[in-house]
Design a protein that fits this description.
six-stranded mixed β-sheet; disordered N terminus
């Protein structure tokens, strides 16, 4: 009996001692020191900066419309004014100041040919912003419908698959009609007519009410040979919005690029239709176009010392006359100070 009592006393003492020294009264937790790994050459590695936000959106201009541009039209030199008689409609915009420097029938809706592709590309870029599942590396299988598109083309084959990025460069560098059609068809789930509806709806949402589209590439559409149409003023705003996208600028100022696939031996060389690149200082895009009804058209963007100028001309009789006129208007715009 006495052994039982003695054992009980010992157990009680051990419990009391444990309560005094054990974890029931822990010290305030101290921050654990980080483990610093030494680099092979001695010292410690630099601290990595915090990751950049993944959803930073560029600051874009508000929807277009009356009052978006201020008006400060100037008088062209005699020789340049004479050259401007060669075009149907035109506008010169100081995009940095949102100011119209010169204009000619700039609010009249006229055929715009492949300037259409600028709207197609804008919807592609906006779609990527809205749907993270679609990226520049998204594969696009060539369709029979795209394969049948003619005019200026990269001869897409139904056995080929390209990335969205590759179709963008075909559209922006080479002005390929089949590539632009495939982009629209892909983004509309296979029905290009649905994409054209989106083009027209988006143009009106953005305030570009003169734009009317019948297809994503600018070819005359159907038996009636319907032309996509728009005003030089609205096209200038469309070009300005596209300047927000680095990928658009990358391809619109590229002189040449190869399009490769297992079926292309050698690769197809894409040469730019914009002959002002590397010939007029600061020109970095944007798009050219031609149909019989539209004549020779161009929307050119240029940046010098942080100042951006946009020139749009439509309806020129010859390509060389168009190029010379746009170059002259750019130089005149920067010469105004």
């Amino acid at each position: 009996m006495k052994f039982i009592i003695l054992g009980t006393i010992i157990v009680v003492h051990l419990v009391v001692l444990g309560l005094m020294l054990g974890p029931c009264h822990p010290e305030k937790a101290r921050p654990e020191k980080p483990v610093v790994k030494e680099t092979p050459g001695g010292g410690t590695p630099p601290v990595a900066p915090p990751p950049a936000p993944s959803s930073v959106q560029p600051v874009r201009p508000a929807a277009f419309g009356p009052g978006f541009y201020s008006e400060a039209p100037g008088t062209l030199p005699a020789a340049l004014a004479a050259a401007a008689q060669n075009c149907r409609a035109a506008i010169v915009v100081d995009w940095s100041a949102r100011t119209v420097l010169w204009k000619k029938q700039d609010e009249t809706a006229v055929p715009i040919a492949s300037l259409t592709k600028m709207m197609t590309v804008l919807l592609v870029m906006e779609n990527m912003e809205q749907d993270p599942a679609i990226t520049l590396e998204t594969p696009i299988r060539v369709t029979r419908e795209a394969n049948r598109i003619g005019g200026r083309e990269v001869w897409l084959d139904v056995r080929e698959t390209f990335t969205l990025d590759e179709m963008l460069k075909c559209t922006l560098i080479f002005s390929a009609n089949d590539a632009a059609y495939l982009l629209g068809q892909f983004l509309a789930g296979g029905d290009c007519a649905v994409f054209v509806e989106r083009m027209n709806r988006r143009a009106r949402e953005l305030g570009m009410g003169s734009l009317t589209f019948h297809n994503p590439n600018g070819l005359p559409e159907g038996a009636q040979r319907l032309e996509n149409r728009g005003s030089a003023r609205d096209i200038s705003y469309l070009a300005g919005r596209l300047l927000d996208y680095p990928q658009v600028l990358k391809w619109s100022q590229t002189r040449s690029e190869a399009l490769a696939s297992p079926l292309r031996k050698p690769a197809t060389m894409l040469t730019s239709t914009n002959h002002l690149l590397d010939r007029v200082a600061g020109v970095n895009g944007m798009k050219t176009g031609y149909t019989d009804a539209a004549g020779w058209c161009m929307a050119a963007t240029c940046e010098r010392n942080g100042r951006v100028v946009i020139v749009v001309v439509t309806g020129c009789e010859k390509a060389d006359a168009r190029n010379s006129l746009v170059a002259g208007l750019i130089e005149w715009a920067y010469g105004r100070g």
